Amino acid sequence: MLSIRGGSVRRGASVILADVNVALDAGEVLGVLGPNGAGKSTLLAALSGELPVGVGEVLLHQKPLHGWSGPERARCLAVLPQNSSLSFGFRVDEVVGLGRLPHESGLEADRAIVSAALGAADAQHLAQRSYLSLSGGEQQRVHLARVLAQLWPGRTGQVLLLDEPTAMLDPLHQHSILHAIRQFAKLGGAVLVILHDLNLAARYCDRLVLLADGRVHLSGTPEQVLQTEPLKSVFGLDVLIQRHPERDHPLIIAR
Fold first, then answer.
1. Whole-prediction pTM value?
2. Cα distances (angstroms) measured from residue 206 to each of 180, 181, 188, 193
3. Torsion of CA 86, 91, 92, 93, to 10 degrees
4. With bands split at pLDDT 50, 70 and 90, how would you rate the model's confidence at 15?
5. Which of 251, 192, 248 is nearest to 227 (CA)?
6. 84 or 126, which is more confident?
7. How many whole angstroms separate alpha carbon 214 and alpha carbon 139?
8. DSSP letters along 108-168, please?
9. Which pLDDT does position 153 carry in this prediction?
10. Nearest alpha-carbon partner for 143 in 159, 160, 157
11. Would you list the DSSP string of 59-77?
């Protein structure tokens, strides 16, 4: 569905990404891990078209990303950047409604979609509040609802790119948001999500890409990637790897 092939990104004389190959398939959640400065947000920006690749190509449905018109691309690709903010006192439902701008589905249908997207992000009770009155975590959930509304309810061919969507969220909402993302993938959509929490990645992601110094250090299933040696090499972190007693996915414990 969405892929970068041999992708390299430079900023001035610095190479931020080098020869990166990542492919995102329908129905899966792909997690991107790595320390600060590894190139995670740059990868997302390249996949979304925000940053051009100097070498290689980005393909959406086997078509170069730059070959898509803006509205056409927005109907199948939505992006939640690391920092989303508004300086206008819009109501929350109006902010989420911005996600419907690429569509011509009608006011009544859009209202129903906005309500459903707010529910998926556990933010429906905030609908009539001013966006500026919300906490950072509440604002984050509103922006997630906005990008969900852009692609609602999710189907094969649609792609969601999320840069640290669990930042600023309490533990309950970290899990509820990632559950909503999994539901989007279950309907056939594809999700790329940047995460810092290794245990959340182990629980909710089908595949993982571990970045280091702008390159793919390792990719595979959570069981293949979340191993003591690569985590020590990339993060400098000594860990124990156990199995979750109920779900059987890897459980990472810092020594």
1. 0.94
2. 15, 12, 14, 11
3. -130
4. confident
5. 251
6. 126
7. 30
8. HHHHHHHHHHHHHTT-GGGTTSBGGGS-HHHHHHHHHHHHHHHHTT--TT-EEEEESTTTT
9. 86
10. 160
11. EETTEEGGGS-HHHHHTTE
**What is the residue extent of each domain of the chain?**
2-254
d(CA 16, CA 8): 7
Question: Is the pLDDT confidence value at 241 over 80?
Answer: yes
Q: H or E stretch including 175?
A: helix 171-186
Structure tokens at 236: 């400098």
Ramachandran class of 65: left when φ > 0, alpha when ψ lies in -120 to 50, beta otherwise? alpha
Q: Which fold has domain 2-254?
A: Rossmann fold (3.40.50)
Can you read off the two tokens belonging to residue 117?
Answer: 């997207």
The two tokens of residue 187 are 């309907």
% of the chain exceeding 90 in pLDDT: 87
Residue 84 has pLDDT above 80, yes or no: no
φ and ψ at residue 11, rounded to 5 degrees: -125, 105
Structure tokens at 10: 């430079």
Structure tokens at 19: 């020869």
What is residue 79's three-state secondary structure? strand
Q: In whole angstroms, give the CA distance from residue 35 to residue 211.
A: 8
Around Cβ 160, how many Cβ atoms within 10 Å?
25
Taking only the tens place, the pLDDT of each residue in 135-182 is 999 999 999 999 999 999 888 899 999 999 998 899 999 999 999 999
> Cα(225)–Cα(231) distance, rounded to whole angstroms?
8
Asked if 194 and 207 count as a contact pair (C-beta separation under 8 A), the reply is no
Q: Which two tokens stand for residue 134?
A: 């919300």
pLDDT band at 7 (very low <50, low <70, confident <90, very high): very high
